[in-house]
């Protein structure tokens, strides 16, 4: 069976991920992501109304025109998890393919909401839920199956999809960390990865997320971030003024730890901001979390401002607002609080907790610097970096190569500079650049079996 892998997006950047695997006549697409930084750098760009080709020209979504060079039928579009760099282009590209979107329940729900917000294209692909551990027949050959393996990441319900072919398995490894004690959901299924590495013809190719490949050691578990947060919040338990926290709104495990510790401190947690309401509301509706009844969630500007007024009237010491703005985004809630644009008034000594790391990119670094300065001018004390990454570091990558023993490795989810440490690591495991270690760029096709 002929096997090709098309590296469409996310091979020159972190963002706009998209990869396709052709096994004989059948094609499976993994991810259709958005590179948000390419959108945000322009003022007031509303992607909802934009055409795909304009977004491709901006470098915001994958240039999928290389798909016409793959001979076969697309049988499924498979986003691995709900982060925008993996699902954000579905509303712009999926309608060009006559195939269902197959994803885990939480991811499917986020895809559905994104499609509903789309204003340029009518996207009517079937939305099909599939859980980790399940298999799906691909095409009519009877020889190709899709499997979801449970992984752990900074968003719930993440999976790594595997395409089983007579030539071996193709494992798509974006995005994960190796967490054996996650706060929500099951640990990463390393047993299944080891089995896949040893059954049938083994693993033909492993496509890997190289985000943190250059960082030594192991990415700590989410339990570590939870412990760090508990320590910080315990240390300011007696403070009788304002405490505000911010984190990734899609990071449900972290949000739920913040909610729990707020209750322990005797404060009412309130989630504020559109995306806070969206991700947490969806997670609660689908039964992934069960927040206490008095947790407020407010997305719209007016209801947010009304809530801030209520907090000021009833006393800041009784509340813990959990808000958007961990990267200092100019329009996010925390930045507006720093500029004094909300009814919430910060006083000398009030605490601001960043349960996030600055994404190392000049725009983020600049915006976050500005936000912290503005908060500081109002007297706020900053607690930052209460966080662990969602991506594997060096030893996690080493363990994955041990578990899967892939015949070919394809680094992804980085630029050339970011691939370098992974290439070093893979070389130490015996892989050779150009032979079985394929460093590539966007828009290429790697022919694995002729
Ligand atoms: Zn991700």
TrEMBL record:
GO MF entries: 5'-3' RNA exonuclease activity; RNA binding; zinc ion binding
Binding site for Zn(2+) 1: 81, 83, 153, 175
Residue ranges of domain Metallo-beta-lactamase in the record: 15-228
Obligatory cofactor(s): Zn(2+)
HAMAP family recorded: RNase_J_arch
GO cellular component: cytoplasm
InterPro entries linked: Metallo-B-lactamas (IPR001279), RibonucZ/Hydroxyglut_hydro (IPR036866), RNase_J (IPR004613), RNase_J_2 (IPR042173), RNase_J_arc (IPR030879), RNase_J_b_CASP (IPR055132)
Residues bound to Zn(2+) 2: 85-86, 175, 413
Summary of subunit composition and partner proteins: Homodimer.
Coiled-coil parts of chain: none
Pfam families: Lactamase_B (PF00753), RNase_J_b_CASP (PF22505)
One example of a Gene Ontology biological process annotation: RNA catabolic process
Compartments where found: Cytoplasm
Cofactor note: Binds 2 Zn(2+) ions per subunit. It is not clear if Zn(2+) or Mg(2+) is physiologically important.
Enzyme Commission code: 3.1.-.-
Keyword Ribosomal protein: no
Descriptive protein name: Ribonuclease J
Species the sequence originates in: Halosegnis rubeus
Function: An RNase that has 5'-3' exonuclease activity. May be involved in RNA degradation.
Chief location bin: cytoplasm
Annotated residues for binding of substrate: 387-391
């Amino acid at each position: 069976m002929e096997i090709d892998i098309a590296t469409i997006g996310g091979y020159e950047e972190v963002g706009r991920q998209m990869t396709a695997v052709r096994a004989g006549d059948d094609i499976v697409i993994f991810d259709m992501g958005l590179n948000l930084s390419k959108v945000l750098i322009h003022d007031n760009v509303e992607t909802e109304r934009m055409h795909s080709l304009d977004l491709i020209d901006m470098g915001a979504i994958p240039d999928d025109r290389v798909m016409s060079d793959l001979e076969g039928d697309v049988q499924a579009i498979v986003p691995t998890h709900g982060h925008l760099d993996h699902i954000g282009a579905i509303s712009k590209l999926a309608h060009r393919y006559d195939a269902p979107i197959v994803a885990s329940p939480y991811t499917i729900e986020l895809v559905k909401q994104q499609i509903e917000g789309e204003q340029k294209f009518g996207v009517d692909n079937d939305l099909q839920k599939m859980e980790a551990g399940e298999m799906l027949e691909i095409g009519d050959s009877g020889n190709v199956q899709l499997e979801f393996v449970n992984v752990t990441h900074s968003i719930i319900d993440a999976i790594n999809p595997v395409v089983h072919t007579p030539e071996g398995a193709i494992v798509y490894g974006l995005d994960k960390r190796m967490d054996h004690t996650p706060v929500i959901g099951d640990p990463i299924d390393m047993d299944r990865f080891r089995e896949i590495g040893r059954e049938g013809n083994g693993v033909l190719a492993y496509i890997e997320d190289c985000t943190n490949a250059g960082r030594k050691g192991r990415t700590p578990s989410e339990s570590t971030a939870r412990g760090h947060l508990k320590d910080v919040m315990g240390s300011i338990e007696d403070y009788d003024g304002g405490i505000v926290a911010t984190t990734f709104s899609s990071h449900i495990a972290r949000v739920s730890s913040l909610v729990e510790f707020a209750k322990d401190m005797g404060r009412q947690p309130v989630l504020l901001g559109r995306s806070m309401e969206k991700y947490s509301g969806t997670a609660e509706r689908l039964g992934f979390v069960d927040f206490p009844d008095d947790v407020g969630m407010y997305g719209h500007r007016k209801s947010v401002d009304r809530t801030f007024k209520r907090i000021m009237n009833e006393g800041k010491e009784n509340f813990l607002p959990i808000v958007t703005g961990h990267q200092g985004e100019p329009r996010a809630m925390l930045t507006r609080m720093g500029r004094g644009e909300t009814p919430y008034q910060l006083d000398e000594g009030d605490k601001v907790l960043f349960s996030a790391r600055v994404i190392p990119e000049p725009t983020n670094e600049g915006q976050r610097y500005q936000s912290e300065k503005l908060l500081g001018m109002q007297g706020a004390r900053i607690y930052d970096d209460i966080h662990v990454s969602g991506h594997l570091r060096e030893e996690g990558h080493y363990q994955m190569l041990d578990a899967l023993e892939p015949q070919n490795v394809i680094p992804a989810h980085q630029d050339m500079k970011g691939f370098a440490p992974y290439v070093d690591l893979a070389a130490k495991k015996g892989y050779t650049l150009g032979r079985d270690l394929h460093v590539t760029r966007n828009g290429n096709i790697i022919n694995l079996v002729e």
